[in-house]
Amino acid sequence: MSRHRRRRLFGTRRAGTWKGNEIVPVSSMDDERSLVPVPFPVSLTPEGDDGEAKEPDADPEAVAEPSFVITLDASNFSETVSKHDFIVVEFYAPWCGHCKKLAPEYEKAALVLSENDPPIALAKIDCNENVNKEIASKYEIRGFPTLKIFRNGGEDIQEYKGPREADGIVEYLSKQVGPASTEIKSTEDVDKVIVDKKISIVGIFPQFSGEEFETFIKVAEKLRSDYDFGHTSNAKLLPHGDETVKQPIVRLFKPFDELFVDFKDFQADAIEKFIESESMPIVTTYDNDPTNHPFLVKFFDSPNAKAMLFFNFSSDNYNTFKSKLHEVAKDYKGENIKFLIGDLDASDMALKFFGLEKDQAPLIIIQDSKGHKYFQPNVTPEQIATWLKDYAVGGLEPYRKSESVPEVNIEPVKIVVAKSLQEIVFSSGKNVLLEFYAPWCGHCKKLAPILEEVAISFENDADVIIAKMDATKNDIPDEFAVQGYPTLYFVSASGKISQYEGNRTAEDIINFVNNNRDGISQPGSPDSVKDEL
After folding, report:
1. Is 229 within 8 Å of 181 (Cβ atoms)?
2. DSSP per position, 464-532
3. Can the peptide bond before residue 523 be classed as cis, meaning omega within 30 degrees of 0?
């Protein structure tokens, strides 16, 4: 995944921070921590009163069972990985609830896979240990648990994207060590490769040799953790498509839209782009059907702009809305915008993410590749195409999620919301220390009394404001790169922005404010914000 700065639906994704922040997950949908709520129904709620998972009561009589999972650390990681043609490594943290749930399943799978021919090695590394954090940073670990597959002594690395229960882990990894593409010689082979509700890619070749075949196998090796690949010389065995294929073809089977698509360009990059493009529906469905989950993951993880229509699927105009959105989506195919249709009964998390209410439905919202949002409530089917055209030509005003501005704001630490951020932080002519926090974050809770102490120390200083913003309920401006909680930024009276990365003690924070503040409020600034608040 690209490491360059990019706003996405899951927040701004960059390398995780290790200064006590909650680590920001990127690719795994079951990670313990999240910068923002994941907008479809999977459990991400941190466990325990302090935002961390609770330890089970220890049994003093218990005797440790022998482990088949290899324990890695900074001293043996590289050496161990380099000795294996294939090894799976779990990057975990002891406090992570999802890691604890995975542990017994991972151990069971390790036992079974140790008897595989050849054996498949499973390993783990504790990323909470200081000596191991450099390794976690090297492999861009931003959430727990993260599993990676290392091939060829660590030369090739892939994300593990399989199940997290023992039987599923065994089945998934057994396929991963076999051939990247399965030869299809019978209808039984077809049933193994082309599975209902999944994406499957089959190469059709007159003979299994030559440049086209070799390119196909290379692509299969690269993408094998995402898709099932097969190859055949007998197109008549396949469920769809021309049975008399005379030249090499890549045929992609999918459980939506036109059901299959053929592709004849055998440049590796072209095949990969074809698979990526065609493996998503023209319109992704967001409902309670678990078979749609993989396509939701791809939709929300896409860097493209996203247009999402939410309404009640049980309404009389369901077919009209669905038909109209499909019609519009086809017009925009290839225009770097993806479409989704969502049922209100399944979309609570998405609506919460965007700060929307069900009584605004039918509603349509767009989030562009820079994170800017555009919103239209109470939309009709006839308005969809026109509204999309207005967006395409830049004719819409961005929408920003925000809590209401508090009527009373007299506590030492002032409350900032998206609607009041410009006034308090950028236009007040004050020196402002702003905390971005999440209500469930344990580190934020520990910082709260310290921040209040800092605020009290500046109560009689008209040029300084100590403030906080709930980043789960307010959109974060582009000026601030928030990659974990809590994150503190200082905006001087003259507008200079700097991130606080020191120790979280009142003394250190106070010194930071005094060292970075401007001496006086800026000329022409409004009356004291503190007085107004």
Report:
1. yes
2. EEEEEEETTTSPPPTT----SSSEEEEE-TT--EEEE-S-SSHHHHHHHHHHH--SSPPTTPPSPHHHH
3. no
Task: Name which of 225, 363, 292 is nearest 42 in CA terms.
Answer: 292
| Residue 31 exposure: Cα atoms within 13 Å on the Cβ side | 22
Strand order in the sheet with 260-263: 181-183, 228-232, 200-204, 249-253, 260-263
DSSP 3-state of 204? strand
- Cβ atoms of 97 and 47 within 8 Å: the answer is yes
Q: Which CATH architecture has domain 7-175?
A: 3-Layer(aba) Sandwich (3.40)
Q: Where are the alpha helices (DSSP H) in 195-338?
A: 211-223, 268-278, 293-301, 318-331
Domain 179-278 maps to which CATH number in 3.40.50.150, 3.40.30.10, 3.40.190.10, 3.40.50.20? 3.40.30.10
- CA angle in degrees (0–180, nearest 5) for 419-38-105: 155
Amino acid making up residue 447 = L
219-233 per-residue burial string, b: 16 or more CB within 10 A, e: under 16: bbeebbbbebbbbbe
Domain coordinates of the chain in residue numbers? 7-175, 179-278, 283-392, 414-532
The pLDDT tens digits along the chain (533 residues) read: 333 333 333 333 333 332 333 333 333 333 333 333 345 543 333 333 333 333 444 454 555 567 899 999 999 999 999 999 999 999 999 998 899 999 999 999 999 999 988 899 999 999 999 999 999 999 999 889 999 999 999 998 988 988 899 999 998 898 888 889 999 999 999 998 998 888 999 999 999 999 999 999 999 998 988 899 999 999 999 998 777 788 999 999 999 999 999 999 999 999 999 998 899 999 999 999 888 888 998 898 888 999 999 999 999 999 999 999 999 999 998 888 999 999 999 988 888 888 888 889 999 999 998 888 999 999 999 999 999 999 999 999 888 888 899 999 999 999 999 999 999 999 999 999 999 999 999 899 999 999 999 999 999 999 999 999 999 999 888 889 898 899 999 999 999 999 999 999 999 999 999 999 987 544 444 444 444 45
DSSP 20: S
Strand ordering across the sheet containing 363-367: 283-286, 337-343, 305-311, 363-367, 373-376
CATH of domain 283-392: 3.40.30.10
> Could you give the CA distance from residue 119 to residue 46 in angstroms, rounded to a whole number?
35
For residues 211 and 1, give the distance between their C-alpha atoms in angstroms, rounded to a whole number.
Answer: 28
Active site residues: 96, 99, 441, 444
Torsion angle of C-alpha atoms 161, 162, 166, 172, degrees rounded to 10: -120
- Bridge-based pairing of strands 86-92 and 146-151 is antiparallel
pTM exceeds cut of 0.85: no
